[in-house]
Inverse folding.
C-alpha cells in the first residue's frame, strides 16, 4: 500500500529557511531507517512558495488563471513529502509517528494520505 507523508510548511519553511543541522541529522537518520526497512519509495523537499505557480479554474471549461507565488497561507502549503510502500495503514501510521518534527520549534505538521 502506498502512503504519502506530506510535510506541511511553516512560516520558516515558506520563507525558505533551512532546518537546523540537528534536525537535518535527525531527518537523515529517519530516512535511512525507511531505506533500510525497504519501505521508502521517494522523499523530496520542495522549493518555497515564492518559486511556486498556481493554476486555478474559476470558470468551468475556461482557461486556468495563473498566479505566481509567494503564497501567504503557510498552513495550506507543502514543504516536502515522503512516499512509502507498506503492508497496512497501521504500519504507515507507525512510520509517520517516528518522523522527527519536520520543521522544528513545534511548528511541524505531517499529513498521511493513502495513494490510489
Amino acid at each position: 500500500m502506498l502512503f504519502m507523508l506530506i510535510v506541511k510548511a511553516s512560516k520558516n519553511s515558506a520563507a525558505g529557511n533551512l532546518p537546523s543541522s540537528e534536525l537535518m541529522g535527525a531527518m537523515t537518520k529517519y530516512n535511512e531507517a525507511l531505506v533500510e526497512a525497504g519501505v521508502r519509495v521517494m522523499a523530496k523537499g520542495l522549493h518555497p512558495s515564492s518559486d511556486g505557480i498556481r493554476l486555478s479554474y474559476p470558470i468551468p471549461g475556461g482557461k486556468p488563471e495563473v498566479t505566481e507565488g509567494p503564497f501567504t497561507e503557510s498552513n495550506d502549503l507543502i514543504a516536502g513529502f515522503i512516499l512509502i510502500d507498506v503492508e497496512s495503514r497501521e504500519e504507515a501510521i507507525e512510520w509517520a509517528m517516528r518522523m522527527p518534527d519536520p520543521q522544528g520549534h513545534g511548528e511541524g505538521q505531517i499529513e498521511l494520505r493513502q495513494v490510489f
Q: What stands out?
A: The chain has one domain: 2-47+73-114.
